[in-house]
Amino acid sequence: xTLPFLDHKKRLDLEALLDAYGGAPALISKSxxxxxxxxxxxxxxxxxxxxxLGVRPGQLLCIHAPNSQDHIYLFLAxxxxxxxxxxxxxxxxxxxxxxxxxxxxxxxPGDPAPxxxxxxSPHDLHAPAPSDPPSLNSIPLDRECSVIFTSGSTGEPKxxxxxxxxxxxxxxxxxxxxxxxxNDSWLVSLPLFHVGGMLIFIRTxxxxxxSLVHDNPGDLAPAVLQRRPxxxxxxxxxxQRLLDDPxxxxxxxxxxxxxxGGAPCPAPLIEKTLDAGIxxxxxxxxxxxxxxVTAVRPGAQRQEHFTAGKxxxxxxxxxxxxxxxxxxxxxxxxxxxxxxxxxxxxVDGKFRTADLxxxxxxxxLKITGRRDLVFISGGENINPAEIEKAMSETGLxxxxxxxxxxxxxxxxxxxxxxxxxxELDQDQIKKALKKILPSYKIPKKILPLTPDxxxxxxxxxxxxxxxxxxxxxxxx
Length: 476
Prior knowledge:
Blueprint: E1 11-12, H1 14-21, E2 25-28, E3 33-35, H2 36-52, E4 60-63, H3 69-81, E5 84-87, E6 105-107, E7 118-120, H4 122-125, E8 139-140, E9 144-151, E10 157-163, H5 164-178, E11 185-188, H6 195-207, E12 210-213, H7 221-227, E13 231-234, H8 236-243, H9 246-253, E14 257-260, H10 267-275, E15 280-286, E16 291-295, E17 310-311, E18 315-319, E19 324-329, E20 335-338, E21 341-343, E22 351-359, E23 365-370, E24 375-377, E25 380-382, H11 384-393, E26 399-407, E27 411-419, H12 426-433, E28 445-448, E29 455-456, E30 459-460, H13 462-475
Helix pairs in contact: 1-2, 2-3, 5-6, 7-9
């Protein structure tokens, strides 16, 4: 099988890819339209400037900034130059680098003071294409190119290391599965520090389509109405907000596909979306698998929309004897970074997830739960242990237990129980947590924890506490 834009050594010819679509629009933002030719020229300029600034193969370069085209240029530059790229959560406190990583360079429009590395301003990235532009071809698919952060079962963030080939095969499989072409435009509706966000551009780049850059994933309605994308990716909370406006519903109904992922979606929301004539396609994936692993195929029967769909090209899925979902294929990550060191967890080229699943009679995957305590809120992984540790670090809490509580918008949200040596002040605790955690990890409600509450032996009974929280939420 001949794969597009790979040379005879199966190395990616990025220059040929960008040349193939030439003057067609590659990126459209609020202020400008960039053709594939302009992206090529801009990338060559960024590569040249990074080399002048001292960036070398094997180094780590991070960016701490809201969604912008700079993320895309730096990401592609990592493919060309061989450094490792990491986008940091712009909502996280400045100066905090997860997984014990020590970056060599950081690109940020903000105050450089808290960061323990060399700084590059966004202005320094851009210059006219050099008279002797660097080559963008012959990129090895096994080249490590990025670290994307997630929370592990211990509560400490892990870095997920991907290769160029992971992104190439992930994007190509999506293009083939959904039938994408040059007429498609995909709204960048997810943060670019998520694997699903960055992959939007890689998918449109491979098929010659257009990425519509949107700098505020929290408010998609204006972009959907103004840009009229043919396809977009959303998490359940985003979809719920979009359905609230009749004009936005009509715009969604005109799309080729609305990919729904990031969290389990309540069946009533899928019913509501399908009843509105919107082509919603639930998906299942993970950071480790470089985004989507399965998806409901366009044109599928209605009942299939209540599953995670079928396996995409270049992926492999199997179920262990206990129902644990195991992933393989060309999109699977290389290894983790934990405490600044590689952690290899693949066994025979496969990754055992924390998810539980089953197959239906038509070969669709159904996700039935998780093996650990991690839950998903609005598309974000929430690990109770991480929040509990942060609450203890404030000095205002002697003990904390965090549980998920059902929420109509975000699916689930974190609530906390806290034991303090004086009267509990949840506003003071939340204020302190803002200096440690992103806003979506701060508990929505903090309830008092007594020494004997939910006691089960020497441990707290999380299920009992979760029931107390759920009952409290219903009365509110």
